[in-house]
Q: What sequence folds into this?
């Protein structure tokens, strides 16, 4: 499954390699209801060709019309849709949802610097190296910084005495991946929820017949031990690994291998009593340290009182989203 962000950057690269000037637009913030979250991208040429989106269509239409009229000649510009305040330009477009959308518009001229920058973004999106784009809001100068890939996609600095920020940092990382260790009714429900949330979903099970019953299109099926898939490089920093089979032969091996990976979330299903027994087993037989055991979410998921496979899957995916967004349990 090709993530929309990757599609945007690859189109930007194609235009840059052809010597085209392009405009990269990033949603900085939303207020009220909005169809896209902060960090969403759109790339465009002055002739109206574009990939990606910022809203349900009204913002794109206005932006492309103004671009065709010669607007956005500056290296960088902030635009607020839905209202105008704080000195930001407001095109007068009223969003149907009643929300407010702020967009960063960067003009990227053709050249080696632009190509190198876009290639680094492509590498980050394909899992090689999560980055932060530090964009100077006056000059448009952009510097890449190393990052974990986790947390909010748009980071504003603390400005003293209410002053306008001088820069913004934009998080760029690989598309979220969910590795499901073994097929089960809960795993199938998790796969469906995860797809809706924009995750790349991979189901690993050494039993080919177990994968045959999975009817969800777009889910990758891997007929091997999940531990083998992980050991072969199946995880990056935006990967969640969950074991939902109640089979310790499958689940324990997965946990032992997963803690050596960069996965941001590792969880296994079971009651508190089962989880305590598993922790002791992994400590004694698996050789896991206390630090490695602390990475495991067990029992997995938020405590929603879930009973059915769908309810358990909801609790699991909600907890994965919580960790990915950098929220502590106490903040809920």
A:
């Amino acid at each position: 499954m090709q993530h929309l962000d990757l599609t945007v950057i690859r189109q930007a690269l194609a235009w840059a390699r052809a010597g085209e000037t392009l405009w990269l637009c990033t949603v900085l913030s939303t207020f009220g209801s909005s169809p896209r979250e902060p960090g969403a991208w759109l790339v465009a040429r002055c002739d109206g060709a574009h990939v990606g989106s910022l809203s349900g269509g009204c913002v794109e239409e206005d932006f492309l019309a103004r671009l065709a009229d010669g607007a956005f000649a500056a290296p960088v510009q902030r635009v607020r849709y839905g209202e105008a305040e704080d000195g930001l330009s407001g095109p007068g477009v009223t969003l149907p949802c009643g929300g407010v959308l702020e967009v960063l518009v960067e003009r990227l001229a053709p050249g080696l610097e632009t190509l190198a920058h876009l290639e680094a973004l492509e590498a980050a999106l394909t899992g090689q190296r999560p980055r932060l784009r530090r964009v100077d809001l006056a000059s448009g100068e952009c510097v890449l910084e190393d990052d974990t890939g986790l947390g909010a996609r748009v980071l504003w600095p603390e400005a003293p005495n209410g002053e306008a920020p001088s820069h913004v940092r934009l998080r760029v990382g690989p598309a979220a991946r969910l590795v499901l260790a073994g097929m089960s009714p809960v795993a199938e429900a998790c796969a469906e929820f995860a797809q809706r949330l924009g995750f790349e979903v991979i189901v690993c099970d050494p039993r080919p017949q177990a994968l045959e019953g999975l009817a969800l299109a777009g889910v990758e099926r891997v007929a091997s031990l999940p531990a083998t898939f992980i050991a072969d490089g199946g995880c990056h920093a935006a990967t969640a690994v969950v074991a939902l089979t109640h089979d310790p032969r499958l689940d324990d091996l997965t946990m032992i291998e997963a803690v050596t990976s960069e996965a941001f979330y590792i969880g296994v299903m079971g009651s508190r009593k089962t989880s305590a027994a598993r922790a002791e087993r992994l400590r004694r037989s698996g050789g896991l340290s206390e630090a490695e055991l602390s990475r495991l979410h067990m029992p997995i998921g938020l405590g929603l009182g879930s009973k059915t496979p769908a309810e358990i899957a909801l609790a699991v995916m909600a907890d994965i989203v919580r960790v990915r967004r950098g929220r502590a349990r106490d903040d809920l």
Q: What stands out?
A: The radius of gyration is 22 Å. The first helix runs from residue 4 to 17. The chain has two domains: 4-126, 177-331. Confidence is low (pLDDT under 50) at residues 84-89.
